[in-house]
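Figure 6 in text form: structure in, sequence out.
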């Protein structure tokens, strides 16, 4: 159902033709790079946190991780990811398909500045075997984002 919700949401912005479904999993950044034949950094991963006990989403580049100091500076509290078993209930999508499209009401979406390096990115689309190729402008519009933030650092290899 969450894929359908994401697809219906993207239809409002005439972006449904950009959705791709795969016969293999795209649930993790690594799996998505294989399914999409792209680089890790081009995957727009969506992370679910609680801030003031309310769910928020942060969309980051796939080669980034949350920098706890930057998170605390931005949100004035320690980063607290939503428990794996509660993500679908709180957000509307299960882990592996979390995206900023077709989510529950009153969830703030933030876009991390790590995405600004690209002309387009690949967020998930509500399921563990889907993605959508979007320009940053399309992502901004379709995600109904609150603001751009800087809360990440590059993953060290």
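Output sequence:
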């Amino acid at each position: 159902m969450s894929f359908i919700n994401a697809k219906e949401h993207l239809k409002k912005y005439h972006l449904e033709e950009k959705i791709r479904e795969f016969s293999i999993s795209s649930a993790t950044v690594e799996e998505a790079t294989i399914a999409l034949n792209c680089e890790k950094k081009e995957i727009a991963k969506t992370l679910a946190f609680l801030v003031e006990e309310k769910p928020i989403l942060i969309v980051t580049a796939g080669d980034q991780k949350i920098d706890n100091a930057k998170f605390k500076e931005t949100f004035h509290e320690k980063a607290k990811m939503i428990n794996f078993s509660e993500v679908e209930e709180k957000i509307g999508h299960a882990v592996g398909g979390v995206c900023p499209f077709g989510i529950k009401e009153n969830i703030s979406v933030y876009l991390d500045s790590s995405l600004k390096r690209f002309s387009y990115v690949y967020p998930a689309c509500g399921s563990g075997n889907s993605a959508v190729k979007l320009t940053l402008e399309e992502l901004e519009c379709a995600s109904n984002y609150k603001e751009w933030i800087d809360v990440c650092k590059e993953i060290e290899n």
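Caption detail: The CA atoms of residues 26 and 34 lie 8 Å apart.
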